[in-house]
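#struct-help
A.M.: can someone run this one for me? Single chain, 112 residues.
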Amino acid sequence: MVRYKIHGIEEINVNMNAKIFVLSGTIDELEGLSKNKKIKNEYAIVSKILANNKVEGIKSQMSKVDDELVEKSKEYVIATNDKELRQRIKSFGGKSIYIRKLTFVDFSEING
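D.P.: on it. Structure tokens below:
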């Protein structure tokens, strides 16, 4: 969402009135990718957005973040643009949202 300047947290709050969480494993993955200069800048922005919006962390319980997200998708709506992960979530009976056309958050997968 940062890369395409989408105000995803605001859209989620307006459309779902939801509490937002992030897995510690997701942050660890992003931190690992931040060795790339472009990702490093995005990581810094993401960190500020999470802090400013009081996004709570959930300690990862599994070594593979995607597997854990699939497991949690029955309890939580997962925000991801990873097409394969979204398909796994759908097959599992979970719900996800994603950025559509690089301009807005698509809630259609949770609304029917």
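A.M.: thanks! The chain has a mean pLDDT of 89.
D.P.: also worth noting: The domain at 8-106 is CATH 3.40.50.1010 (Rossmann fold).
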